[in-house]
Structure prediction request, 243 residues.
Amino acid sequence: MQRLGHTRSTCQHDHLLLTPDTFIRAPLPGMQRATAVVHVSPAMGAGFTQYTAEFEAGGVLAPAKEQRFVYVMEGELMLKGDSGEQRLAAGDYCFLSTAQAARFEAAVPSRAAVIEKAYKPLDKNPPCILTGRESDVEPKPLMGDEDLAVRVLLPDDFAFDFAVNTMTFQPGAALPMVEVHVMEHGLLMLEGGGIYRLGESWYPVAAGDFIWMAPYCPQWFGAFGKAPAKYLIYKDWNRHPLE
Prediction:
């Protein structure tokens, strides 16, 4: 219930925090029996678009004009393309390059995080279609901290111009430093919560929140509570800043 105009959401020049109480849903072109919550886009100054797609049973997300990454949060999606069909359950993910015309159909009511970005080519072939399951990816401790596990969902290959990881923090775990860097981030809280420093501000965050961080925005996170905190995070990657 709305409390007289109060929200944790905030929009600043170098960061954005969107909380579920402020989400607006609308279908995007090519959607059928589905809606999107657009979290960030070039309208904000971002170099990518990220949204949550919410499907009814039988809902459809049409092929994208740009490269697309999809992470299934709830339900079950069928990836349908020229090479056949593949089932994606919660925790599964898929990368499609610009040339791969494939659509997603929901077998049951479902939700998925979707990232779309114009491709910046190098002197290499564009990436091929890639699917995976997060739980099959070996977790790696961040800078030796066993309480902070990173799962790298896209290959460490210069053919890819962005990266997507999940990061899981045990209660009390925190990033070892305040980060300031040229990459921008899109971050979706999947589980738990904690405190995020963005710029000169400190925000309580919880599952369902979305954060955008512009290049060079100071950033830090610490997990609080009795359960682990986990988020899905995007960054632009593998390209020279002059591009």
In short: The chain is about 0% helix and 50% strand. The first strand starts at residue 10 and ends at 11.
